[in-house]
Fold:
Amino acid sequence: MSDKKNWPLWEIFIRSKNGLNHKHVGSLHAADAEMAIENARDVYTRRNEGVSIWVVESQYITASSPNQSESLFDPANDKVYRHPTFYNLPDEVKNI
Amino acid sequence: MDTPSQHTLEEQFQARVDAEEKIEPKDWMPEKYRRTLVRQISQHAHSEIVGMLPEGNWITRAPSLRRKVALIAKVQDEAGHGLYLYGAAETLGAERDDLIDELHSGEAKYSSIFNYPTLSWADIGAIGWLVDGAAIMNQVPLCRCSYGPYARAMVRVCKEESFHQRQGYEIMLTLARGTEAQKKMAQDALNRWWWPSLMMFGPSDKDSKHTAQSMKWKIKRFTNDELRQRFVDITAPQAEFLGLIIPDEDLTFNEETGHYEYGEINWAEFWQVVSGDGPCNRQRLKARRKAHEEGEWVRKAAMAHADKRRQRKAAAQQQQVA
Structure:
């Protein structure tokens, strides 16, 4: 970090319409949460892209590491029985 | 555990890029890939920010309320584009303040087009039509750039940019269909903005030192000359529709290739403007520095205010606990 006292960085999440999840759209700098929401309004929703905004200071996000993604996601790879296509049913059976 | 050698890592990286996988901020990447992206994305961000200056010059003198709200919205978009892009550069570990300092010291470059003056209202039309048109040509392929955050920022930028170009062309169309004096004004703007717009695509392929590597890394998808040709092919008929003459005596349509052929670009002028000696380089940087310095107390005050509120909230919570 430089000693210039940057405004902290915030990650911005927008719900584009009710019924949909908030989705990460990018980041911006702001002095506090309230300003982060106001700035997010101006930067990310100039054309009605949202009905709700979440802001989280970037330093509080814990992310999984790409180096470990193999060991992290590996356990799901060999469990085909978690998918419906694993089960063989005759064609005559309908609506299942 | 074996640590893969630098060489293997680079090969794996290139394989991912070749497979059209996107590279995300925390993924391993060659240091040069990171540096190239920080340079390109921050230059791009600086261009958006400096690009507000020539157009902002006409906001107070827009000829109607309709034109004025459109121009304000466009300039505001440019600010937004600059912010998306600074955000993308920051995912690579760059600090916002450092990037801004590099712009203000003249160390970082921005698009040379913004070092030309906006002398008449028609220039606002010409900028939207030609400068934003050229920018779109450059930016659409960047939506498929191998670096995820840059590509995503470009998708948003491109969505917004098409309004910019259409509002510019509409201004040109109105002037071209107006009085003799208005038509003359439109022609004069085209005369002055045509060649600098062609220069926006950067040096010719044979002189572009970054192109080959950037194409290999899929940061760039087309060469400067390919994009420039596409721009001329699309723009020449649009000028014809306006009834305006492109200021290039060598401009001809080649029936065989289906492309327009155009005259030699004045590269001496291009390099002069890039190296800081264009008509408005000093003025632009001075305006940027002034805005930044005069805003310093606001940035500090906002920080102090936020700190104070945080402390007050913490104290109130403590009292509740007690």
